[in-house]
Structures are given as C-alpha cells and as structure tokens.
Amino acid sequence: MKSMLALMLASACFHARAADLPPCDKAVRFTAAWFADPEVDTTKPAAELTKIGAGVSHSGTQLGHVVVETKLAVTPQTMCQGVVVRLDYIKPVLRVASEFPPGSCAYARVMNHEQTHVRIHRDIARQFRELTYPWSTGSNSAAILAYAKLELDRLMQAQVRFDSPEEYAKNFSACGGEITRLVKPAAPTRPEQTPR
Fold it and tell me: What single DSSP character describes residue 120?
C-alpha cells in the first residue's frame, strides 16, 4: 500500500512539474542505444543453432546467428512536456557453429554474414531514431508504445530480407564446398509440415 501511495505521489508530482515545463519541439522523440559489438560464441554446433533459431528465420541449417533482446520504453522528457521512446539492445551475442575452426574460410564466411546482421541492427537503430510520431496530440504512453513496436517490427524485416534463400545458397557453396563438408544442410521443411 505504501509503495502504491508513493507511486501515486510521484506521478502527481511529475504531472504538476510537467505542467510547468514548456512544450517540446517534438512531443514524441525516438532514441536508440548503440548496438554494441556482440560477444562471440563458437561453442554450439549447427544443429543446436538451428534448434535455437527455429521459428525466427526460414527453415534450414543455421551456420550462425546474432541474438539480442530488445527493450522499448516510453518515459517523460525532463526539459519539456513530451515523451521519449527508447530502444535498448540487451546482451547481443554472435554465434558461429562450432564445426568451423577460427581461421578457416568457412568461419570467415559465416562471421562475415553475421557481421552484416550486426550492421543491419545498427542501421535499424539509426532509422528508429529518425521516426516521427504521426499524431501530434491526444496519445497516451500505451498508444505510443504500440506504434513503436509496429515500427520496430517493420524495420526488423530488413533482417529477414537479408537471409534470403539466395544468401543461404551462397553460404553453402562458398569456400570450395568446405561448409557443406563440415555441416550437412538440414532438409527443407515442406509447407504442409510447417506448424501454423
């Protein structure tokens, strides 16, 4: 009960203080943290990476991947009346299948592919910072957060577009067949077997 009372008091104080602040030039400002260099993990085999990534990307053997938790938050601006929508990236990890020894052509090929995903994440963060909220007044934090989630989902489609069947085929045919010798590709899932 005391914590609820404290929360209500803090909220009332904020609203009273916010009323004294000038309006912001942008009522809703978007910001994103820097996508840090990910930790590199080479301990998991391709079969395990494929299981971890099931449902995230298209079917087939995953030779590596970048995983990261994203967090969206809407907070009040401190110098004016408005809010900030912040995108944070929590603990990015870049994985390369353990079948590929560091220094090998296969390792370099997979690392290059995954580093492209890191660059795409950084570009997504840049584009997120450039978003403009389309409604000027009357929006609450929940509506603003819902808009931010939709826009982030739209921007994340760049990751899916990069992981095209052509890109995966190039990876498996690269390095004079080294990748195929080290990891057998998973059989593609037929559409009627795909859970819906």
Answer: H
* Residue at 165: amino acid letter: P
Task: Give residue 143's identity as a one-letter amino acid code.
Answer: A
Residue ranges per structural domain of the chain? 23-186
- Find the helix or strand (DSSP H, E) in which 148 lies: helix 141-162
Phi and psi (nearest 5°) for 112?
Answer: -60, -45
| Average confidence (pLDDT) per 10 residues, the chain, 196 residues | 39 52 87 95 92 66 91 92 94 96 95 96 97 81 94 95 89 88 64 38
CA distance 116 to 38: 12
CA distance 129 to 121: 13
Are 91 and 69 within 8 A, CB to CB? yes
Close Cβ partners of 158 (under 8 Å, ≥ 6 residues apart): 120, 123, 124
Buried b (16+ CB within 10 A) or exposed e, 77-104: beeeebbbbbbbbeebebbbbbbbeeee
Q: How much is the pLDDT for 168? A: 85
d(CA 31, CA 37): 19
Is residue 87 within 8 Å of residue 122, measured between CB atoms?
Answer: no
Backbone conformation region of residue 89, classed left if phi is above 0, alpha if psi is from -120 to 50, else beta = beta
